[in-house]
Every structure is written in structure tokens, then in C-alpha cells.
């Protein structure tokens, strides 16, 4: 029977799985498999699995429960093994590696941050800060100018926006970095200029959260900083 | 052990927040090489909306138009300069209150991401607040 694999923990984790949902359209039973010093949390795999909200939520729910009670290595969504024995064999094969990661992640959680800034705010800043942009803008508004003027203004503004996005992203990252163990940035999506995860240990948690609150307050309402956490350490396994 | 609760900023148990952490669940996490990943319809959609600053005539013209439209006099105060912010925060100055970390939580991925292609599922999703952001418009338009 194919099994869906959620997480790896140490065998001495409480592994309280009561009341948790499983992935797939039909309810299944969550269970743990012991393999020496390690354990895996699995359920029988559904015949078909799509990344629907309830499935992602179920996967995430298992990680959060395990994280609340100890240290967890969250697996990527959607991984299956042919049967229980294959899971045990995989744990045996990577035993030292997984034990080491569990040890490294003890007391740590992932915090994920995305941030966006209101476009008009940046445009105003640019027009205020750049005499050339202001001049071009005034010339265009006055009318009768060269058709090259809007292109020149647009190019200047595009460069300035990119530079400001990068500066904001770097500023937020640098302000938070001292309170974190690791970080992993990825390409921002949509309107965002920042998309980053931090690994934060228990000792630095309050400092990190305080720093983030301070940042959000300083950046003001025009800058939309969204913080998520504590999350299972998806980005640091 | 990671204490949960008091300082917890947002939890994915609140489905509205799932969008911003979806890429973590789908694209990160431990991968075991001998395990098979089930076929996930719709999983690649996440990648579509990766931010690209397009250097094109069209983009430039749109930026220029957006600038022309702005009324500088009525503009709100510009946000604090980041150099100041970094200094203040690293000095431990966490003054002021948090602006609410969840603001706009849904919007980033909603436009691009539809979980699966299940109609019933789609209807559950709260629509993202519509915002006009001239600086981003060129990219948006490209997708249409």
C-alpha cells in the first residue's frame, strides 16, 4: 500500500496525532513508523492528490502539531513511498543525516516574510528625490515636448523603482539578520519586493519579533510587511 | 521545543494566510530521493507570477503616465528612509505599534495561483483586495 509521508521526527517525539486531518479526498489514519532512533509520520496515500487547500492545510497541520511538541523535519508536500518498509529503509539509510538535522533544528522555527510597497508612494519619492525625473515630468505635462521624453522618464523611474526595492529588501534583511541563524531568500512574487525565510532559535525569538514590529512601524502603512511564523522549518531541512 | 501561542504572528490554520506560505509547503521541505512525488496538477502555476522588471518601451510609457497622473501636492508623506530604519531597529528601538502583519496577506499569490482546478475549491477563496499599483502594471498586463 502506497503511503503518503508527512514528517520525520526523533523516535522519542510524543507523536500525538489525534484529531489531525490527512491529505486526500477521503479521511485516512495518521500513524507513525519507527526506524531505530527516527520515526516517520505517514498515512495511506490517496489514489489521487491535488494541491488543494484542504490537502495543503492537512499537510501543514501535521507539521504544526509535531513542531508544537518537539522538533520536526517537514517533508515537501506530495511525497509518497511504495510501502511502510520503504519508509523505514529510507530512514535507516539517511539516519545520521536526519539525526543531525533534527539536532540542528531543535528549538528553531521558520519565519517567512513578504513585503510590498505601494507603487504611487515610490513614484512620489522618485519625483521628489530626482530633479531630472521632476524636470521630465514637468516637461511632459507642459505638452509639446519630444515623444522621447516619456520614454526617458519611464526608464529613469524603472531603474529607480528597482533600486528602491532592492534597498528596502536589503534594509529589512539586514535589520533582522542579527537575530537569525539562517536565511533563504527567493524571487518576490506579484507586487512584492521581498520574499525571505529566516530560521530563528528560541533564544532570539522575541528580539526577532520585536525587530520586525519596529521595522513594520518605521516603514509605515505604505509598506506592507507580512510576517508568518512560527512555521515548520521547510526552508532549512 | 518551540512554544506556540502568545507571540504567534500568524498561523496557517487560518486559511486566508495559506497563500503566502504555500510555496514553502510545495517547493521546500525535505525531499527523500527514493520517494515519489505524486502528480500535482496545478503545482507549476506558482512559478508564473515571478516578478520580472521588464525593460521595454511599454513599461517605460506606463511609468511615465503614472508619474504624470500623480498630484505631488496632495501626496502623502513619503515613508522613512531605510537607512534610518535599519539604524533604529538594530539599536533595539522598537517603538510604535505593529501595523498588523497580516495586511494584504492574501493578495500576492491569489492572482496567479489557483489550487488545483476544482471549482468548489476556488469559490471558497476570498478575493484579494483590488489595488492599483502603476509600478506593477506592465507585468500584470503581460500575463493577460
Summarize the entry for a quick read.
With 237 residues, chain A is an alpha+beta fold. Chain A contains 7 helices and 9 strands, in the order βββαββααβαααββαβ. Chain A has 2 domains: 3-105, no CATH class; 109-236, Alpha-Beta Plaits, CATH 3.30.70.
| Total separate domains of chain A | 2
User: Which CATH first-tier class of the largest domain in chain A would you pick?
Assistant: Alpha Beta
Mean pLDDT of chain B: 53
Give unreliable regions of chain A as ranges: none
- Give the total of beta strands of chain A: 9
| Radius of gyration from the alpha-carbon trace of chain B, in angstroms | 20 Å
With helices defined by DSSP (H or I, 4 residues minimum), what is the helix count of chain B? Answer: 6
Estimate the strand proportion of chain B: under 5%
Main features:
heterodimer; A: 237 residues; Alpha-Beta Plaits; five-stranded antiparallel beta sheet; four-stranded antiparallel beta sheet; 9 strands; elongated; B: mainly alpha; 34% helix; disordered C terminus
Can you give a write-up of this model?
The complex is a heterodimer of chains A (237) and B (144). Chain A has helices at residues 53-69, 84-93, 95-105, 119-129, 131-142, 148-176, 205-219, and strands at 3-10, 31-35, 38-44, 73-74, 79-81, 108-117, 182-185, 192-201, 223-231. Chain A is built from 7 helices and 9 strands, in the order E-E-E-H-E-E-H-H-E-H-H-H-E-E-H-E. In chain A, a hairpin with a 6-residue loop joins strand 7 and strand 8. The longest helix of chain A is centred in the C-terminal third of the chain and has 29 residues, at 148-176. Chain B is built from 6 helices and 1 strand. Chain B is extended, with a radius of gyration of 20 Å. At the A-B interface, strand 1, helix 1, strand 4, strand 5 and helix 2 of A face helix 1, strand 1, helix 2, helix 3 and helix 4 of B.
Amino acid at each position: 500500500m502506497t503511503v503518503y509521508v508527512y514528517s520525520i521526527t526523533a523516535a522519542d517525539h510524543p507523536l500525538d496525532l489525534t484529531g489531525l486531518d490527512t491529505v486526500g479526498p477521503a479521511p485516512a489514519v495518521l500513524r507513525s513508523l519507527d526506524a531505530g532512533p527516527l520515526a516517520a509520520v505517514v498515512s495511506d496515500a490517496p489514489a489521487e492528490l491535488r494541491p488543494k487547500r484542504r490537502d495543503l492545510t492537512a499537510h501543514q497541520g501535521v507539521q504544526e502539531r509535531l513542531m508544537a511538541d518537539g522538533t520536526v523535519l517537514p517533508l515537501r508536500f506530495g511525497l509518497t513511498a511504495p510501502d511502510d518498509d520503504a519508509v523505514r529503509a529510507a530512514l535507516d539509510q539517511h539516519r545520521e543525516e536526519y539525526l543531525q538535522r533534527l539536532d540542528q533544528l531543535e528549538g528553531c522555527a521558520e519565519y517567512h516574510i513578504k513585503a510590498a510597497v505601494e507603487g504611487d508612494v515610490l513614484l512620489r519619492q522618485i519625483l521628489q528625490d530626482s530633479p531630472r525625473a521632476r524636470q521630465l515630468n514637468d516637461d511632459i505635462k507642459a505638452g509639446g515636448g519630444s515623444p522621447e521624453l516619456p520614454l526617458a522618464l519611464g526608464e529613469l523611474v524603472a531603474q529607480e523603482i528597482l533600486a528602491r526595492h532592492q534597498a528596502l529588501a536589503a534594509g529589512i534583511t539586514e535589520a533582522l539578520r542579527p537575530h537569525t541563524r539562517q536565511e533563504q531568500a527567493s524571487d518576490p512574487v506579484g507586487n512584492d519586493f521581498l520574499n525571505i525565510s529566516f530560521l530563528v532559535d528560541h533564544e532570539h525569538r522575541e528580539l526577532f519579533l520585536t525587530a520586525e514590529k519596529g521595522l513594520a512601524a518605521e516603514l509605515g502603512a505604505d509598506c506592507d510587511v507580512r510576517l508568518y511564523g512560527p512555521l515548520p522549518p521547510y526552508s532549512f531541512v | 521545543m518551540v512554544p506556540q501561542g502568545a507571540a504567534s504572528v500568524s498561523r496557517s490554520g487560518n486559511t486566508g494566510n495559506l497563500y503566502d506560505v504555500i510555496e514553502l509547503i510545495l517547493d521546500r521541505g525535505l525531499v527523500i530521493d527514493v520517494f515519489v512525488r505524486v502528480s500535482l496538477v496545478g503545482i507549476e502555476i506558482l512559478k508564473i507570477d515571478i516578478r520580472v522588471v521588464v525593460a521595454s518601451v511599454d513599461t517605460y510609457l506606463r511609468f511615465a503616465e503614472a508619474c504624470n497622473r500623480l498630484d505631488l501636492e496632495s501626496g502623502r508623506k513619503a515613508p522613512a528612509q531605510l537607512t534610518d530604519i535599519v539604524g533604529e531597529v538594530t539599536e533595539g528601538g522598537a517603538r510604535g505599534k505593529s501595523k498588523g502583519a497580516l495586511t494584504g496577506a492574501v493578495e500576492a499569490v491569489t492572482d496567479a495561483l489557483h489550487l488545483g482546478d476544482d471549482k468548489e475549491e476556488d469559490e471558497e477563496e476570498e478575493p484579494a483586495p483590488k489595488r492599483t499599483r502603476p509600478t506593477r502594471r506592465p507585468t500584470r498586463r503581460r500575463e493577460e
